[in-house]
């Protein structure tokens, strides 16, 4: 039996998939990675992802949200558009939203305003939050804390932070998404220890494709592009860190993901 794995973070509408998007989905399914959760990062990408996912009912789900990089483009009607998208059956979370003080592609005050708007929308609709935080832990927690009792559920996707940050997120009741960063012997070393601190019922797995291709893949993709079919490799790395079987980690994270997103 193939392990079932669910990839909670696929940027499938990224231009690098324009030539072979359907084949990428087929390769994922053939590798036991199904369903996939496509990430919305702007009104346009959230709309494109939800349209694409509608062709694969039960196999593809999406988030709808504004990534901190894109908050500079938000308008008065942006939240209404997200609210409309959120009504679609394939849209199962609000996000990717949060704060990114590493790149500062949008001014920090603008990031904070639209992050809070999306937190409030998720509370209003009682939908899970798909979160992004990079080098903005203090402000991120400060904005989230008042809503902890009202938020349905929240996952900090692509976690690469410190032990202290992880402990804060777990204490707040958040879930944690782990990517192929854990496969990087240079940058991901600390994650191999930290993943042991995450309860299996709070852990989810993701590729963040086409980004963060695992550095130690036995066969490297020629174009360097990551895709969901590589998730079993990430799951095996996580399992080795935990001293558990890949089957156990696959089953547990898949169940956690189904419960979290209601899929």
Automatic annotation (TrEMBL):
Binding residues annotated for a divalent metal cation 2, in chain numbering: 132, 157
GO molecular function: exonuclease activity; metal ion binding
Database matches in InterPro entries: DNase_TatD-rel_CS, Metal_Hydrolase, TatD-like, TatD-type_Hydrolase
Signal peptide start-end: none
Binding residues annotated for a divalent metal cation 1, in chain numbering: 96, 208
A family per Pfam: TatD_DNase
Keywords assigned: Cytoplasm, Exonuclease, Hydrolase, Magnesium, Metal-binding, Nuclease
Name of this chain's protein: Hydrolase TatD
Species per Swiss-Prot/TrEMBL record: Paenibacillus pectinilyticus
């Amino acid at each position: 039996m193939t392990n079932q794995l669910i990839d909670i973070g696929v940027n499938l509408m990224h231009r690098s998939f324009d030539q072979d998007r359907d084949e990428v989905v087929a390769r994922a399914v053939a590798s036991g990675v199904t369903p996939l959760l496509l990430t919305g990062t702007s009104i346009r990408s959230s709309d494109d992802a939800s349209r694409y996912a509608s062709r694969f009912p039960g196999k593809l789900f999406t988030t709808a949200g504004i990534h901190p990089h894109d908050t500079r483009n938000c308008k008065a009607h942006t939240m209404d558009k997200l609210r409309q998208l959120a009504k679609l059956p394939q849209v199962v979370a609000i996000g990717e939203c949060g704060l990114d003080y590493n790149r500062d592609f949008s001014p920090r005050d603008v990031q904070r305003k639209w992050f809070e708007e999306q937190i409030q929308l998720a509370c209003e609709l009682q939908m899970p939050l798909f979160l992004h935080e990079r080098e903005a832990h203090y402000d991120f927690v400060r904005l989230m804390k008042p809503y902890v009792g009202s938020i349905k559920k929240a996952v900090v996707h692509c976690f690469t932070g410190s032990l202290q940050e992880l402990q804060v997120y777990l204490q707040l009741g958040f879930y944690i998404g782990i990517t192929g960063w854990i496969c990087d012997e240079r940058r991901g070393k600390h994650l191999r220890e930290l993943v042991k601190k995450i309860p299996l019922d709070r852990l989810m797995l993701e590729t963040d494709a086409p980004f963060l291709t695992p550095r130690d893949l036995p066969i490297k993709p020629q174009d360097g592009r990551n895709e969901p079919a590589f998730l079993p490799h990430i799951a095996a790395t996580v399992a080795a860190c935990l001293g558990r079987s890949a089957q156990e980690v696959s089953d547990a994270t898949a169940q956690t993901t189904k419960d979290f997103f209601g899929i």
